[in-house]
Structure formats: C-alpha cells, structure tokens
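Structure tokens please, single chain.
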Amino acid sequence: MSTVRKAVIDDLSQLAGLFNLYRIFYRKESDIESAKIFLRDRMQQHESVIYVAEENRKLIGFTQLYPQFSSTRMKRSWLLNDLYVLEEYRGKGISKQLIEAAKQLAKETNSAGLLLETEKTNIIGNHLYPSAGFIFNNLTNFYWWDNI
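Here you go.
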C-alpha cells in the first residue's frame, strides 16, 4: 500500500530520479544533477509544493504544484505542473492519491482551485483528469511565448 506525503529535502535523490524520468517522458534529455538542483531550489525557496507517493521507503510517484493567482477570483490557485508515477506502479490509483493531496492543498490554502495542462497525445492523462473531477475547458485559447 502506498502512502502520499509532502516531500522533504531528504527525498531529493530519489525525487530527482523520478523527476528525470518525467522529463524524459516529455522528450527532454536525461540530467539527474540538474534535476536535483532544480528541485532543491524549489523546495528551499518555497516556490513549489511537492507530494510524493511512497511504498516500502521507495518513492514511486510525485506531483509538483506552483502557486499562482487569479485576478478575476481574487484568490490564489495552484498549477498542477507535474504528475508522474513509475510505470510498474501505474493503474493502482497512485495518480489519484497524488491528485487528492493536491486538492487538499487547494482547500487548506483557500484557493480557487487547480489548473493543469497535458499534451493531447497523453491518452492516460486525458482519461485520468476528468475521472478525478477536472473539467476540460474548451472556452479559452492557451498561448505560449517561447523565450529560447
């Protein structure tokens, strides 16, 4: 049985491995050392909240949320930016456990809600999120400006 809890700095080595696999899933090059630095900075500077799923002291999944604000709602909201579960643990409800932790964070911080995006090709995610209570918004256009 897996448990979900807030990540702590002692999780950094295992968490960086998961984060690296997540980035590889999205076609980025493997870079564990940079992953470790990036996550450490987010944690130490309180710029994100990370929840981990753990089984027998092994981290098997994580979600990372970033705070943002909604001007129209005049409240904080959270960007559920990252969600990843090791392949051999998928289909066991771990993603939903991590999402529930994110929802609890939104409630505890009196936030407007959670926002996420995923690629159209992410078949599993595009089935998971509606089943977890997320509503697909086809009323707005999403734009991105790339500073590269």
